[in-house]
Amino acid sequence: MSYHYYQKSSKDHRDFSRVLTTGVQRRDPETYSAVINLANLDPKVTQRVTVEVWDWSSYVNPVKLPVLIDDLDIVRFPYKIAPENLAVMYTFLQPENVVFYEVRIIQHSGNENLVVNTYGNRIDLTNPLENRVLQSQLVPLQIKNGC
Questions:
Q1: Which residue has the higher pLDDT, 57 or 127?
Q2: 13: phi then psi, degrees, rounded to nearest 5
Q3: How many domains would you assign to the chain?
């Protein structure tokens, strides 16, 4: 069996960027938090990302919610994910009475070897299938100004 590895292009990884969104979702009444798993599967390249969670409950002028990591630490963006590392970030939705929310992932550098999955957790840490948005379901955006 032979393995073929892709050859890196001459393009600088720092030029790579993309914005992905879950789209606006209605929060299940039992969903307590939104969780974002970011896995850097590249063996050599560090990925730089920003995660945004927007509260769209007012239907206009969405509000950016704080994104946390570890034990309630606010994430400083852009966040660097080392090669072959996982970052798990989250935002509380229930105490803020969020009805509609959106998760955006802005990848500032790196390559396509960053895999992102998002899901809504209940208080008992279960996450029903309807609360999940997988990498293949995220929608690319092209936003120049605004939220």
A1: 57
A2: -60, -25
A3: 1
Query: What is the spatial distance between Cα 60 and Cα 85, in angstroms, rounded to a whole number?
Result: 36
Sign of CA dihedral 97, 133, 71, 126: positive
Q: For 58-83, write each residue's pLDDT tens digit.
A: 999 999 999 999 999 999 999 999 99
**Cα separation of the two ends of the chain:** 48
Which residues, listed in sequence order, are joined to residue 102 by a DSSP beta bridge? 54
Give me the CATH number covering residue 38: 2.60.120
Host domain of residue 86: 14-136
Is 1 within the bounds of a domain? no
Note whether residue 143 is domain-resident: no
Whether 48 maps to a domain, the answer reads yes
| pLDDT the model gives residue 130 | 83
pLDDT digits (tens, 9 = 90+) for 11-42: 434 556 899 999 999 999 999 999 999 999 99
